[in-house]
TrEMBL record:
Residues 14-129 form the DUF2231 domain. It comes from Luteimonas colneyensis. This is DUF2231 domain-containing protein. It comes from the Bacteria. Keywords: Membrane, Transmembrane, Transmembrane helix.
Amino acid sequence: MVSTAPRRYAPAFHPVHVLLLGGALTLFLGGLLSDIGYARTYEIQWQNFASWLIAGALVVNGAALVCALVALLPGRRTAAALPHFVLLLATWIVGFFNALMHARDAWASMPGGLVLSVITVALGLVATFFAARAPRIGGVE
């Protein structure tokens, strides 16, 4: 007869790391929504909002990147740690180029800034998915 242990779930990453990821993703999403607002209304203030939101997202994403680097240390490493770190690094790099695009004149940053914002949010979503996915512990013995 096979005995089974109840499946338990361990947190994939530290809660502060997940909090930083949520903050960065929210700020990047705010930048995307501001870009959409600028593309529809051509009010320059939307472009200013997007620039500040992206700059804040880069700071928070940088702190989350440091946490992801700590999660790569031996003994703390999970199966999702390396893809999460790589995706988070890609998010920061694309976000940095997005910030440079938004440093231009308001009209000159479109549509490239909007496209980079969409890519940044998509990368951030996938990186957050890898952080939130909990590994299973236990199972059939």
